[in-house]
Amino acid sequence: MEKLVSLIIDGKQVTVPSGTVIVNAAKKIGIDIPVFCYHPKMEPVGMCRQCLVEVGRLVIDRATGQPVLEADGTPKIQFGAKLETACTTPVSEGMVVIGTSEKAVRGRKDILEFLLTSHPLDCPVCDKGGECSLQNLTLGYGPGQSRFIFDEKMHLAKHYPLGDLIFLDRERCIQCGRCVRFQTNIVDDPVIGFYNRGRSIQIITNSEPGFDSYFSGNTTDICPVGALTTADFRFQARPWELCSTASICPHCPVGCNLTINLRREARSNGELLIKRIMPRQNESVNEIWICDKGRFGYHYTESKERLTQPLVRREGELVAIGWDEVLSYVAENFTHAGKNLLALASGRLSNEDLFNLSELSSGLGGKSALYTHMAGGDLVAQVGFGEGTNLADLGKGTVILVVASNLEEEAPVWRLRLKQATERGATLIVANPRRTKLERYASQVVRYAYGSEATTILAIINAMSAKQNFPKAPKFSQGGEAIKTASETISSAENLIIFYGSEGMGLEASQALAQACANLLVVTNHTHKANNGLVGVWPRANDQGAWEMGYSPLPNLKEALQQFEAIYIAGADPVGDDPSLTEVVREAEFVVVQDLFLTETAKLADVVLPAQAFTEREGTITSGERRVQRYYPAVQHTDQKPDYAIIAAISKRVGLDVQESPLRIFNRLAAKVPAFRSLSYRLLAQVSEQWPIIGRNDLFYGGTSYENAQGLGMHLSSPSQIPALAWPHVPEVNLAEDAILAVPITILYDRGQTIYSSQLLQQRIPPAHITLHPDVAQRLNIPDGALVQFSLDGVAVDAILHVEEQVSLGVALVPRSLGMPVSAPVQIEIVVSSEYLD
Amino acid sequence: MTEHILLRHRDIPGLDQIDTYRQNGGFEAWRKVVSKMDPDDVTNEVKASGLRGRGGAGFPTGLKWSFIDWQNWPHYVVANADESEPGTFKDREIMESNPYQFLEGVAICAFAVKANDAYIYLRGEFWQIAHKLDQCITEMESGGYLGDKLYRTNTSLRLHTHLGAGAYICGEESALLESIEGKLGQPRLRPPFPPAVGLYGKPTIVNNVETLTNVPFIISRGADWYKSIGTEKSPGPKVFSLSGCVNRPGNYELPLGTTFRELIFDHGRGIPEGHKIKAIMPAGASSSMIIANDEALATPMDYESVPNVGAQLGSASVIVIDDSVSIPWLLNKTIHFFKHESCGKCTPCREGTYWMMHLTERISQGNATMNEVMLLQDVANQLKGKCLCALGEFSIEAVLTGIERFPADFKTVTAKSNS
Q1: Number of structural domains, chain B?
Q2: Chain B nearest C-alpha distance from A203 (Å)
Q3: What's the whole-number average pLDDT of chain B?
Q4: Fewer Cβ in 10 A, N or C end of chain B?
Q5: In this structure, are B189 and B256 located in the same domain?
Q6: How confident is the model at residue A1 (pLDDT cuts 50, 70, 90)?
Q7: Which of B169, B340, B347 sits opposite A49 (nearest CB)?
Q8: Residue B232 maps to a domain
């Protein structure tokens, strides 16, 4: 057990584990010792010297080993001659810490005066003004007058772009190094660093493009001054003018907790406008970090291209129509279609939307389906995470297997969580056809060929069954040392977690992979226990929620679109993703598209219904780890309606009993879907004390991330039964020699509407490109960077050719959502584009 | 002194040739430790000799070696050849002219802590010396003094030179280790100290060049012989680097405890004619200024006695200041140095040295009043006890003692502005 130590800080007693540094012990009892360089998420460095305190220790008699006592019987305390840094000094039994004495306060003043000598004191125009540690501490301790001559101040660059997203004001920087340490130690993207020395020391970027990291925005939260600002928020608002709303990030299955900062502005006629997205603390999900996509990707909600009114097709053209009229029109057609209604929704919708939608289609006897390229969520619902699971707890004894997922691109914050888990002692096995960033923390790597995802996992089970009498998987030739070691590691694991993604896979292969992974968990008895289970790295934020409610994808979308009489598409753009669907959608009898934008699918629809964005409404989403979390409305948009409300209005008109308010919908969902049964809005909004304590009066400690007062979310419950083993059918891939297989991969900044609307992120979206091994490119006689052409499902595609050693031979990596429709591996023939030859 | 121990090349020409070195008893100590001694015995012998670190801190060398963490492997030895303190030029002469004795000392230290690799970290300007040491190391390898299975035992050792990029701070042992690791030369938090967590996080002994050069003689002649030189608490010979206003500056190897007077007036031949000695900085730019009165001149130069006259012996780089030197001017020179060399990691040193440089500049140029002298004193006191490493703490020594002990000089330079 941890040894506990008692000490007194400013007259208050506190007991903390030995090894705790003074500043954290003080924080526990509400005493805020000022810091700049210290951050509770990072190792102390003791650079800024702001946290100076007087430290007294027990005097121990060397002969007896006992504390020496004063005449009055109290232990004798010896104070050091120097002040000590509270951020680096570990507590000891009987220690007395004084931060309020004249000497200690004088020390703080001294350091502040030093910092201010080089600081521009441009608080009136500084974005950090109002939430600045230096400003607050200067008001608390600082000198009222400067003894440093203004003319002797150094003048440095005030608007230095470290990258597209982050600006550095070199005059304001106090060289605390938090940003550098965050990027180096927490993110492991050491793309910024210190340059030069002494008073000339500066933060620089050493990557091309500058500050090339998906987590760069977090440095602006932990920057204790206004040195680092985001290109998005700088000069936009003063922090005290902002109000905030709690939200959940809609971009990926991690479910990062957000705070939306808002301000009323003239340009919005006094309505609230989103000024920035900030992380909100949830130590089990995202700690106090978010990725740049989550931070900057909200601009689509305020895009001028948003749909503002319902549209209906009249004489071939989409024309505006009133809500009442359109809803009745839709209801009429849906009633007519009856069991021939197909509702196609994506995981972009909330649990409430999806629930109402499935109530509507089942009420009419129709079908509802999930629009996705990745399957297996039904298995995650059975063997996924359950109550008590906490990513922050993963450590020694836990084996984490990540298969077919490039977490950095698919769910960036999960890469950080798994990196941390390995630092706490967890064993990471990465199975992927090519190297990913996650492999840096892996103790074992399994390489397989695209197409062998499921067989690789089955081979791991096979390698075990020889020894441990597990039910045998079908025999696969796949084997080798890597499989054997991985299987040995897994069989000795206390806890086993599997993350699976959709690298190089479509529906069929990902379903097979999920089944193989579920089998592995079942045979090794790692289901239905906290910190064990399967996690889907889904393409969308609420895919898991859809699966939990019984949604599943259609095996053949094209066929289905031809079969059903009425098609209700919500939050999905099948034609945009795959232009070969254009004809079937155009020819379908009655198509309703409900979306934020006039998508390619919407352009072909009979009715288009404008839906609200996540910032405009409330709801819940279920993250990949089966955690249900609430988000709240931040801004008002009355032209559009929330998806659940539109669906409810249609349902009423077809004569179904459907709820209209999110709270009531959720209560029905909880009553009907077993996994949700123990959840309620009230429980989802509950919080408990989190460590570190951040976001209170003392911004200097944790930075400007927000404390969580609006709910930590809850895990879905797991079905009591452990699923039976089912050995998946693994599709055979038979390729001609020299053939090239196009395999889909995921990149973070793709051309999805949610990113494309952000001008900042737009610059980071790569052009359409495919990646080949250099040998293959040479064989095809195509140079790196050439414009190439190939055909996917009858659609001609132009792309730039990249070559990379990491790519397997015979494979072309094709990023999803870059205008190249590839839903599953497919053979292609690549030729140099005639344009390029010209 | 009749015989040089450290500057032995002054007695034996050509000692930087391996054959000459060998003919004069070279590598005998190395052979003795490898073939006949236990690592612990070596450390104990050094402990018994009372050898103290010659880099400036005067920490007992054998004691440091005994702190090595035996639970954590591998171990490293690093010779600190960064020698950047203004006024210090002793290691340079040793490495240039008596390199094998130094390298033999490194080897013995490595044996004592069971390190198979030792690094010699040289300041960037010492590239020629590094080249020379590389040649010496090659000679030692072909002579069978370095490599595997030395003297048919299981001892193996390799030496590596490593050049810095010319930063004073890299003479601070933890910044030096960072620099070898390829990182920015900035000091680490201490504790943990290098014998517990050093190079690449492994237990490491960092010793100064001169310290290590003592070791072969301690092994071959014994601790008792060594203790017969110098004083009781500061035994052994020391190379004093004498510079400044003195007729014959240079390195002088003398027993610890030799008086300032003997060094400056007997060996250094006194002050240039027409001038009087005014102050002494016994430890380079990092030292306090001693008023050079009779009491100070009669003070023995050892680790215990120098504090009696308000300074530290440090690296024993004695800078002599005569009455032609204005103390405010001198302060500006030293502070300019510290401002230039501050690594910028901790606030007081980064900002304080910059501020003090501006103040001393104005004061020394006669553009300041006595108030600014007092402000300078304030700023210096504001740094005191708050810095991350010794650089900042030492930067104020000359400032505070200069103002306190030579007030007349400050009255003179501020006279114009005061009126």
Answers
A1: 3
A2: 12
A3: 96
A4: C
A5: no
A6: low
A7: B347
A8: no
